Amino acid sequence: MAPLSPTVARWELVLRLRELREHRGYDSATFARRVGFTPANWSHVEKGRRVLTANSIAPVLDLLEVTAEERAELLTLLAAGRERGWWTGSTTLLGPELQRYYGMEHGAETIRSYDSLVIPGLLQTEDYARALIRADVMIRPVQVEQLVEVRMRRQRRLRGTDRAELIAVVGEATLRQQIGGPKVLRGQLEYLERLAGELDTVELRVIPFRATTGAILGGSSFHLLDFTAPALPTFGWAESAVFGGAVENSDQVRDLSFAYVRALERSLSRADSLALIREYARG
């Protein structure tokens, strides 16, 4: 089971409250006035931009007429959501969107990722991550080591008793691109070899150059997170050269899921992917 994440707890709380409101037949503006909020403030609550308190949630639960059992569940989510995760230490370093993603990642049960040009962050060595971060002209030199540390901290989700399952699909170009130079790349590939032997919950699949439709996703990078709680949908995150953010539209998340399935179908098997990684590491 995934560890408790305040970010995930807050998300589940607002999703369940919105579902209950709609089930009771209230529109957002009417409901807001009935529970002592302005429509704008209640909209912020349902979008996760404003955090409820024990006092402000009481009239909400009363109007929704929730059972004693569900009330206890929602109050537990409220309390959990008010905790601080490790990713909230520096707003200036990460920014609110990245903090949200890392919080979601921390509480995910399964992580599916696609990267066409670089090894995904959860599988990077320190040297490989440092080379990538240093190359970003938007990042100040003083921030490099802090961001490397954050990336390594994220990787703890792959180990321990509550480890996440990771299925990462990458293009073969990631095995050849000289990020940090030949020594750094070789160290990265050798690390992937070791990781495959150590963790059966991590699966790396490679789309080979010979795949005729392997470049269908171009230079994109995206991640799909799934959770234990049945109330939570898949959380999508997409990145490009100048953008990285949550995919809020459910239809777009569905499209990303379809794209991921297509990428997985075009990839080599787990064993053949490992053999290709080993070949490049020895080359």
From TrEMBL:
Residues in HTH cro/C1-type domain copies: 17-71
The record's annotation in InterPro entries points to: Cro/C1-type_HTH, DUF5753, Lambda_DNA-bd_dom_sf
What Pfam families does its record include? DUF5753, HTH_31
Question: Which GO MF terms are attached to this record?
Answer: DNA binding
Q: Which SMART domains match?
A: HTH_XRE
What's the protein here called? HTH cro/C1-type domain-containing protein
Q: Which organism is it from?
A: Nocardia aurantia
